[in-house]
Amino acid sequence: MTAVIDHPPGARTSRPKNRILGVVRLQFTNTQTFVWVPLLILVAAWLITLIIHWIIASAGVDSQMYSGGSQTPLWYFAVVGAQAVNLTFYFSQAMSLTRREFCLGSLTAAAISAAGISAVFVVLGLIEQATDGYGLGGYFAYLPWVWEHGPLGAGFVYFVLTMLCFVLGFWFAIFYKRAGALILTISLTVIALALLAGAAWINVNRAWPEVWAAIVGAQAIGLALWALGLTAVFALGSYLTLRRLTT
Amino acid sequence: MNSVVEVRRLTKTYKTTTALDDVSLSIDEDSIYGLLGRNGAGKTTLMSILTAQNFATSGDVEVFGEDPYENARVLNRMCFVRESQKYPDDSNARHALTNARLFFPHWDQDFADQLVSDFDLPLKTPIKKLSRGQQSAVGVIIGLASRAEITFFDEPYLGFDAVARQTFYDRLIADYAEHPRTIVLSSHLIDEVADLIEKVIVIDHGRIIMDETTEEVRSRAVNVVGDADAINRLVAGREVIHRESLGRVASVTMLGHLSNADRELIDDANLDLTPVSLQQLVVRSTQTDLAESSAAETDSRSLQS
């Protein structure tokens, strides 16, 4: 007697999974770059500012003190952006990912990291708001101009500026890999000259007061929306540059 | 047999060099290919264009009937193991294998675990601190355990000792028997992989100069061992591509097939026929630049016989 056993076919079918979320995990392999160093920079800047404020306060100065120290992690995100390309792009190619998946996944990873650091920024600001600057009148995160629209507005501004820095670093790293050091340096020089030309134009037209008035007049949220648009443009630029990057 | 890769008139030029020169070929499903050639012949360029990591200057590439560029559907089914793969800075072998598991749909974790112990790979040491051979093991394990429908191994065993190489060959052939797929293995160690590969593609100066089954290539020549005088009579007028002798005994590889008269001579003189070294044949075919004119004559004559 023979028995026929039917084995279920397709034992080797592929499991559907989200490859872009996979890239996020891939980026977070570099936990140090994406989590610990930005957090360390923020905490260190906060601690240093706090000590300075305490020294000033203990010297008998009784006015409110505002520090720009909370911006330091923003700049580091340009480094994070560059590292996201340098450390992970080649491996992402070995994982048979498309450049598009790599780009979207890296931006998502950056957004998660930026949201985390923005949350820390907001929490610090709320503490400062509640304790009148740690009882010293010293403010690190709670800057009135940024907090005009409350904690969510402040978090949004911080988040967008962090993303803008990330995307700039990301794009420059890709551009460097494609074009090399010489063309990158020339391009940066051209950008610097263009900015300088703008400044000279403002100077010749004696328009500085209007420019400052416009910047102060535009609320932080308004500027953040501009920065958001710029971030989107740079992200698109990054992808278009990445499309032709070879390993 | 179904072909999984079709390449038509593929050319890749860099500023001053031509890496691939009008290459056309097809790669069949479920076979092991040896992609052979000298350094700089164009092997890596070909494989990186097929996996959409590099771009053609002109010509068409189709993998599973589609253009692989930015095509997740196609890339998903391929795995390319590079000679010196770069890994994220902080990552160790465990990270790399965990990521690979995420991206390769046919990944077999048990097989990967077994390979880790076969190659004695430390999982927690940062990859950049591993020895050259251990780094290569990471790539080899990803390539094998991913069980991608097309797997490219580009000189995968840099820094491997003979034992590790043999382990690689053994695991590859055993797993291939259970899970047939297309494997393209680029190698300098031609005789080591000769028993593994079913088809040979030789590329030289960006051109395909040989694209045949291993058996066909081997049948182009014969290797005879025995009395030196008898062998000299046998090979008279033919092209000899390799000769070794020790006293009165010689071992000679010559091009061409054996006629009935040849076989009688071999029987009478008690000569032995032994397997031809694939390496000798490939080396000869990539050296034709050196001896093009003289080889051309003998070649045509010996192939007629």
Can you describe this structure in just a few lines?
Chain A is an all-alpha fold.
What distinguishing features does this structure have?
heterodimer; A: 247 residues; 8 helices; 2 strands; disordered N terminus; B: alpha/beta; Rossmann fold; Alpha-Beta Plaits; six-stranded mixed β-sheet; four-stranded antiparallel β-sheet; 12 helices; globular
Task: Explain what this protein looks like in three dimensions.
The complex is a heterodimer of chains A (247) and B (305). Chain A has 247 residues and is mainly α. Chain A has one domain (19-242). Chain A contains eight helices and two strands. Chain A has a two-stranded parallel ribbon. In chain A, helix 2 (31-58) packs parallel to helix 4 (99-131) and helix 4 (99-131) runs antiparallel to helix 8. Chain B has helices at residues 43-50, 72-75, 93-103, 109-118, 132-145, 162-178, 190-193, 214-218, 228-235, 260-268, 278-286, 288-304; strands at 3-13, 18-28, 32-36, 58-63, 78-81, 150-154, 182-187, 199-204, 207-213, 221-227, 240-246, 249-255, 272-274. In chain B, strand 8 and strand 9 (207-213) form a beta hairpin. Chain B has a six-stranded mixed β-sheet, with helices on both faces. A four-stranded antiparallel β-sheet of chain B has the order 11-12-10-13. In chain B, strands 2-1-4 form a three-stranded antiparallel β-sheet, covered by helices on one side. Chain B is an alpha/beta fold and 305 residues long. Chain B folds into two domains: 3-216, Rossmann fold (3-Layer(aba) Sandwich); 220-304, Alpha-Beta Plaits (2-Layer Sandwich). The interface between A and B is medium-sized, with 32 and 37 residues. Chain B: InterPro entries: AAA+_ATPase, ABC_transporter-like_ATP-bd, ABC_Transporter_VariousFunc, P-loop_NTPase. Chain B: Keywords: ATP-binding, Nucleotide-binding, Transport. Chain B: One of its GO terms (molecular function) is ATP binding. Chain B: Residues 5-230 form the ABC transporter domain. Chain B: This is ABC transporter ATP-binding protein.
